[in-house]
């Protein structure tokens, strides 16, 4: 019977594995941002822009006037610390309700006005591009350095 002996520095191997895992974890945030950017840009394109200043008629009064493009200009993307973890990065893309309190009425409609979805529609229209952007950026980050 013939035997074989293999020597391996397990501690070094573990260090290399940890370094690789750290690199993969670090790649999640820029990858998530790349996907959020695609969604954000499409939402900006889809947000309706009035031709002139407009008023917002709510149940408690009339608000405004709001300048043309106000809703579009209130759209943001932001990293969520509360919903992100070591290997999960979350970004929110929405409108600023303080700057454009009528955003929900536009997005979802009312009993008197139809919806003109810009966030939901952007999500539906960019699913493939978002996935590709996330994948591409993740691989770039994981392969870098």
Gyration radius (Cα, Å) is: 23 Å
Number of strands: 4
**Order of strands, widest sheet:** 1-2
Number of separate structural domains = 1
N to C succession of SSEs: HEEHEEHH
The backbone outline, from C-alpha atoms, is elongated
The assigned structural class equals: alpha+beta
> How many alpha or pi helices?
4
Percent helix: 40-55%
Low-confidence segments, ≥5 residues, pLDDT <50?
Answer: none
Q: Can you give the mean pLDDT?
A: 89
- Distance between the amino and carboxyl termini: 46 Å
Largest sheet: 2 strands, antiparallel
Measured by DSSP, the beta-strand proportion falls in: 5-15%
Characterise this structure.
The chain has four helices and four strands. It has a two-stranded antiparallel ribbon with strand order 1-2. The chain has a two-stranded antiparallel sheet with strand order 3-4. Helix content is 50%, strand content 14%. Helix 1 packs antiparallel against helix 4. It is α+β, with helices and mostly antiparallel strands and 145 residues long. It starts with 9 loop residues before the first helix and ends with a helix. The protein has one domain.
Q: What would a concise description of this structure say?
A:
The chain is of the alpha+beta class and 145 residues long.
Please outline the helices and strands.
Elements: H1 10-46, E1 54-58, E2 61-66, H2 70-73, E3 75-79, E4 91-95, H3 103-108, H4 119-143
Antiparallel strand pairs: 1-2, 3-4
Helix pairs in contact: 1-4
């Amino acid at each position: 019977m013939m035997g074989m002996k293999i020597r391996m520095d397990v501690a070094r191997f573990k260090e290399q594995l940890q370094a690789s895992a750290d690199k993969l974890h670090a790649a999640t945030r820029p990858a998530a941002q790349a996907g959020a950017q695609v969604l954000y840009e499409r939402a900006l394109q889809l947000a309706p822009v009035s031709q002139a200043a407009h008023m917002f008629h709510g149940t408690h009064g009339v608000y405004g006037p709001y300048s043309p493009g106000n809703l579009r200009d209130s759209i943001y993307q932001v990293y969520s610390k509360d919903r992100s973890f070591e290997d999960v990065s979350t970004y929110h893309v929405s409108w600023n309700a303080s700057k454009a309190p009528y955003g929900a009425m536009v997005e979802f409609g009312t009993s008197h006005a139809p919806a003109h979805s810009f966030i939901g529609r952007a999500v539906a229209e960019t699913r493939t591009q978002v996935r590709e952007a996330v994948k591409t950026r993740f691989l770039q980050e994981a392969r870098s350095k």
